[in-house]
Structures are given as C-alpha cells and as structure tokens.
Amino acid sequence: MTPDPAPAFASGARAGLPVVLGYLSIGFAAGVVQHAAGLSVAEVMLMSLVLYAGSAQFVAASMIAAASLPLAVIATVFFVNLRHLLLSAALAPHFARIPAWKNALIGAQLTDETFVVALNQLQRSSVGQGISPAWMAGLNLSAYAAWAVANLAGALAGGLVGHTRALGFDFALPAMFAALLVLQFAAQASRLRALAVTLVAGALSVGIALALPGNWNIIVATVAGASLGAALELWKSGQTSS
Amino acid sequence: MEIRADVLLIVLGAALVTIVPRVAPLVLLSRIDLPRWLKVWLGYVPVAVLGALLAGEIFVSRGQLVPLASNAALLAILPAIAITARYGSIIGAVLAGVAAMAMLRALGA
C-alpha cells in the first residue's frame, strides 16, 4: 500500500547536499577545536554521535576543559538546545499522520540546518502533499553522517598537530565563540539589545566565575542575559502596540 | 583513545536533555503553540550563552581574573571578530585568532 520509500530517501539526501557540504567544513573545524580543548578522539566522537549538536558540543568542550561540575554542563546544554523546541513544534503539524516512533526518529536528528531544508521543501511542495518520513530520513542521515566524518577527521588532524600551546591552538574555541557571536548579531532584530545582552551576560559570567566554583556562571549568566533581552523586547513592543 | 567517566556522564546527560525538546513536540502531534514570551526568550539564548562563554574564556583563567594589561586573549580575539564581520567565515575567524595568539606568545605576551 505504501509507496517505495527508496526514491524519497534519495531525494531527501540530495536536498541535504548543502547541509552536508556545510557540515563537512564546520564539522572539521569543530573536531579540531574540541580536540584542542582537551577531549580525546574517542570523546569527540562520543559527543558527535550521541549529542549531535554543534554549539552544545563547543559549550561542553569548553566547560569540561574548565573542570566544571557535570550537572552545570548538562544544565547549560539544556538551555543551549532548548531552541529545538521551536523547530520541532514548527514541523509537528506536517507530520501529524505518521506513527509516533517515526516522529521520534525525525525529531532526534533535528538541527537548525536540516530544519531550514525541510521547511523549504514543505513550502515548495504542493499543498497537502507534504514530505514523507523517508525523505526526512534521507536528509537527516546524510547530515548526521557528514557531521560524524568531519568531526573524526578534525579530531585526528588536531591529534597530529598535538596540544602545542605555542601554536595558539587552545585559542581556537574562544575564536569560534567570537565568530558565532558576531554571526548571531547579524540575525538579531535589534543589535543594541543584542549588545546589552552580551555585555550583561559576559559581566555576570566573569563575576560569578570569580566568586563561585563549579562553572555555574555560564548557566546563570545565560538565563539572566536572555531574560533581560526578552524583557526589553516585550516592554518595547508593549509600548508601541498600546 | 580513552573516554573519561565524567565526560561519558556529561555526554549522556546532555544528550538526554537535548533529545527531549527535539522530539517531544513532534511526537505529541498536537499543534503546540509556544507562548510568545518563551519564543522571544529563546531567541536571546544564543547571544547570552556565547557572551557568557566568550567573556569567561577571555577574562578568567583558573578561577582568577586575567589583568587587562597582560590579556593576550583580548587582543587575539579582535582579528577573529573582524574576519567574521567582514567575511562571515567561522574557519577564517578561528585561523586568524589562533595565528594572532601564536604571534603574541612568540613575542612574549
């Protein structure tokens, strides 16, 4: 009764090609950076295959290097990855008529990039037709495989260079945070609010790190900074709409 | 090729708290509409967490404040920011930051 899923899988994998190319380059850098932060190749691959979330992998690598409490790392990763709630909720209506286990598999490999590709496909496909679980599997698995291969290659390349401090490799992670932050600014509606959030979160992070052990500074500063940004935006929009 | 026990614990815990928000809305099937304040709040999480992480990496070392006068990281981060702002390249930013840090250390900073 069900149509052959193979063509849909191949079509999804083809649609994922831009994501694959992006993951191959960013994933390679991510592998180098995580290895430079002190993770072994096996630990990088554990993160890549089990966690499968770029920004969260950087956060975890940085906090592990700073000898943080495991619970503080897990709590921070939770807030970093909470945005997937939005992506998953946006896709949910389009996959309402398939078994729950297929929904779970589709969601488990959801990333910012695969979400964009899936949404683009949904908008282009004719009304009511949607996309199939097999199509999503093609997209998700090609992205997942590219990320794992690139992380492995990066970690191995980092191992060849070694942890030489003189080469400045330990600075790869802060440089990456700075790059991601600059790119975030471009995506924000108000750069002034983004700057206020950055400065407050940064100052709180440093202050708490100096005052308290265990690296709770990241989670506290993140929640406080995001709350400030949200309060400013909601207050502003409340002013203009009333 | 070793995996430390605490790293394993962190990855498993982090994977658990990551997969729930990824999967729950899709599985619950209902057209979940998150409240507006939560959507707005989630939009600021990336900027806040990156600001917190970056400031910690630059200004704190082994629980101590790194003095402004001898802060090589604060100088080395500038080319990384400039490269990203100009070219939008993450890899370019990482290379520029690492090269700047290597140069500063060679100069004895």
How far from one another are the termini of chain B?
34 Å
Order of helices and strands of chain A: HHHHHHHHHHHH
N-C termini distance of chain A? 55 Å
Approximately how much beta-strand content do the residues of chain A carry? under 5%
Strand order of the largest sheet of chain B: 1-2
For the sheet with most strands of chain A, the description reads: none
By helix and strand content of chain A, what is the structural category?
mainly alpha
Q: What structural class do the secondary elements of chain B suggest? A: mainly alpha
Give the overall shape of chain B: extended
Overall mean pLDDT of chain B stands at 89
Report what the structure shows.
The complex is a heterodimer of chains A (242) and B (109). With 242 residues, chain A is mostly helical. Chain A has two domains: 5-167, no CATH class; 188-241, no CATH class. Chain A has twelve helices and no strands. Chain A is globular, with a radius of gyration of 20 Å. Chain B is mostly helical and 109 residues long. In chain B, 74% of the residues lie in helices and 4% in strands. Chain B contains four helices and two strands; from the N terminus they run H-H-E-E-H-H. Chain B has a two-stranded antiparallel ribbon. In chain B, strand 1 (60-61) and strand 2 form a beta hairpin. In chain B, helix 3 (72-87) runs antiparallel to helix 4. The longest helix of chain B is centred in the N-terminal third of the chain and has 24 residues, at 5-28. Chain B is extended. Classes of the chains: A mainly alpha (242), B mainly alpha (109). At the A-B interface, helix 2, helix 3, helix 4, helix 5 and helix 6 of A face helix 1, helix 2, strand 2, helix 3 and helix 4 of B.
